[in-house]
Amino acid sequence: MSAKIVKAAAFVLCGALTLSTGSAMAQDAKSLDELLKFVKQGQSSEAKENRAREAKFSKDKANQASALKRAEAERAQQERLSAQLEQAFEENELLIAAKQKQLQEKLGTLTELFGHLTSASGDLASNLEVSMASAQYPGREQFLKDLISKMSGSDTLPSIEEIERVWFELLREIRETGVVTKFSAEVSSPAGERAEREVVRIGAFNMVDINGNYLSFDNGSLSELPRQPSGPYTGWAAELASASGGMHSFGIDPTGPTGGSFLAAIIDTPNLEERWHQVVMWAMRLPLLVYLPSCSQFTDWLY
To answer: Which of 101, 210, 213, 221 fits as disulfide partner to 198, beta carbons 3.0 to 4.6 Å?
Structure first.
């Protein structure tokens, strides 16, 4: 019963729509012939639109099928290429392993030689970084570091020129530790100002400027010591800096190649005036120590 009611309602709705459309056409049409003509034109236009939609759908379907075939063909080609590359990779892995084994066999005792060369280059690079001679010949340690990286990180062998340069740098450092030479270098003052100065290097022990001021060498830079040693040392240094030859007195720091701790200790040693001030200060504090021996607050202040 309900199904019949639904069908009847649908039929009435369609009839109403038809009547409304027909009434709209009837209002535009002046006769039945014109109305018939309008109906035919509408049917023809709808048929044309339907055919266009069907053609477009068929064309899209054909294009999709063609795109799918192309994608499948591309995938198959890439899969074949991937298989070829995997096979080539495995073959190259085996070839590399065989070549490495062949290289080790041909090197023989040279492997031990290159190990000693790497070790010697590392020790020399560490010494050159703190060597006074590096102020005159900068950048020597970088070559050694690059050579170590080259020999440690790959199978590349050092050239004859590189091996000879290690030998040359070692001999040059040995020679420079025993000569007194003068050259120009950039020096920082205690105030932080940098300027070009004439400096004199005494082997690997000390370096002074033309005025006799002792210099320190740290991280590749020269700087004037904020406090100079007392006594005749700076005068001797000035005489040596202005001399062109001969024998001259000079205060050498034997710990210069290892950081100059002896010179630092001499500089930190109080002079006569400073010792006098220390004695006076202790003399002023002595009564407090006598009369207030149990007052921890004053005792802490004294020390």
So the answer is: 210
